[in-house]
Amino acid sequence: MYMKMSELKVGDKAEVTSVKAEHAVRRRILDMGLIKGTRFKVLRVAPFGDPMEIFFKGMYLSLRKSEAEGISVHKIGYAGDGMPMSCDKEGRSCCGEAL
Amino acid sequence: MTERKEISVALAGNPNCGKSSLFNVLTGSHQKVGNFSGVTIEKHEGYLDYGSYRIRFVDLPGTYSLTPYSPEEIVTRNYLIDERPDVVVNVLEGPNLERNLLLTTQLMEMNIDFLAALNMIDEVEEKGISIDVKQLQRLLGCHIVPTSAKKRTGIDPLLAHIVRVYEKDIEIRKNKLSFRPVIEEAVDEIAGILRREKDLQSADTRWLAIKLLESDREVYHRVQQYPVWVKVELSLQEAMREAAKLYDSDPEMLITEDRHAFIRGAMKECVRFPEERKSTATDYIDMVVLNRLLGLPVFLFVVWAIFQITFTLGSPLMDMLETLFAALSGAIEPLLVNSTLRSIVIDGIIAGVGGVLVFLPNIVLLFIGLSFLEASGYMARAAFVIDKVMHRFGLHGKSFIPMITGFGCSIPAIMATRTLKSPTDRLATILIIPFMSCGAKLPVYVLLAGAFFPPDVAANVMFAVYLLGVVVALLSAKLLKSTVLKCDSEPFVMELPPYRWPTLHSVLFQAKIKAMMYVRKAGTLILAAVLIIWAVSNYPHSEEIDRWAASEASRIEESPLSAVDKKAETESLEYRAQSLQLQHSFAGRVGKVIEPVIKPIGFDWRIGIALVTGLAAKEVVVSTMGTIYALGQTDESSAELATILKNDPSFSRATALSLMVFVLLYIPCVAAVGVMKKEIGEWRPVLLYSAYVLVLAWLLSFVTYRLALVML
What we know:
A: 99 residues; mainly beta; six-stranded antiparallel beta sheet; 6 strands; B: Rossmann fold; Helix Hairpins; seven-stranded mixed beta sheet; elongated
């Protein structure tokens, strides 16, 4: 299912399909390693509902929903589906099995 | 002794990679802290003698990448390009290697002599991660030395390798990271064009070409001034078209993807993770600390604790310092016969510098607390919890803690804004901090609220004043961020680093740096400002008043009063003389000159004088009013001053409220203004800000005064 990162729920797992944002923001997102093909899991949202925290490649990253809006993702799993959260398509782990 | 060979080494790495700990281990006590030119980013330098070499280290700011967006990145990049250190040590966070390698790929592109320190190797082993260092060396084209700053392992091999790289005694061939064909072709073509420009021949044209394809604005500006730009631009456009046609993308994106693909490949080849990822301490802590329900209470508790440590623990120390300075004055006073000199030393220098130095315990304690939060990893999480609220007013989550600190004292609060990376976020936060009513304003409120309102109402009045400060601060932030400081807010794309115990050394070291900075400031600019305020409230000195006081004194002496009455009379005469001298001084004249301006908000010239001297420190407003009303040493609990004010027909409840609002909002003390200038780096914003707060204070005082006249 294709959607924006900001629309994902806590526990959802997804893969980045494209990153569109204002230049400086996009650059930062890319530099953090959130590029096409990166798989991540939504860990939580802050007490006031924004920003959100995601986990990928062994890193905890926070970003505002307004920034997550520019990131298109392909949802591939949800909380408790038992699906291993590998970080690449061949299923090789880069940080061990995920949460 | 023979002359040692000097090797300059720069440490570069991501934030939280243990770079600073490694720097501390390497350089020990041979450190000094300065600033990178033109920015308030701390520059840590140190050296170490190793064999026949003296190795000079510079600890560059932590960055994820070398794009020209954050000041840290620009500083790092310019340092590498302009200063050309002999050797660059790329410090890698072993347990999170993948993300760290992005910077490494960019160093590979820069054609510099570098090696990598695979830091936190102890954690890597603990987590059961295995890294094939040999293969990774071949791929990255640099020597890799496993180190652990915490366990102090690998330090000697690291030094040995630095020397080897310096002496070109290396086995590893530099590796070039190659991009997909469409990019490589464009890079070659553009580099070829650039080489035709004489001035650019000595530059690294391949690097320039890559940066141009990445739309790097700094490199754009640099290349645009040459005639070859016309051709370069055509090639860039061609590359854009190709990228769009072949990949539905742009060169910048493709370059980034290729770098990450290279890293992914290297990770696959060289790094093995354990099959099962065990939940880490960070996972467990965050389940509580960032919990939807518990996150906010935890956050508020931490802020409360920091505040308590700083101001509750700090205030006995502050009192001790105050006593110390008072004792110093007492000890010196009899030694100075000349009354002018005595006044300069005691009322000017000791009172002025002492008044600034008493904040030192607060500053040290606050920065011990803040650097613990920063180094442990909680600071980023605090920002995460509160960002939504702060963002509504155009601020960043990280602005919150400095703002709250402002309730204690603006000075450490302004210094604490250094955690904010974006210059505009930082400026906005600095400018609103003085609206957070500081501890020194409290005596003014206590005096006025206590004098004009019954005790139960007085507390509410004071609370309302504090609240007004917060509202003005947030609205001003919104105003600033939607007008003059509109551009580039810091994106909130931010790592929440794994929790780690900070070392005692690093926490104390940070606090020491801040304390030194403050003391230096107190010794120069603030001292000068305090002396000026002392001078304007003591000069010109009227001989006439002196003569009058002398004749009055002899009249009392000769009168048939009892010894006790004589003493009382003499004292009251002294106070009256002081009051007259103050009125005669420049400050007094300024008070009278500005009277027409402050009349509409209910103030007469006496308050005018107090507002002028209040620039030295806010609590001085109270003592100056005591002097004007010819009282002795006065503080907020002085019932005498309260009674006089209550009975003064020109002083009403409305005046009291208006004055509280004005003191809350108008120009902060000289110490705070000085630190503001130091942190911003320019006078212009500080002066504009001063004008803004004067107008704002006047307007809000006017509204308060008029409303109070009608309603009370």
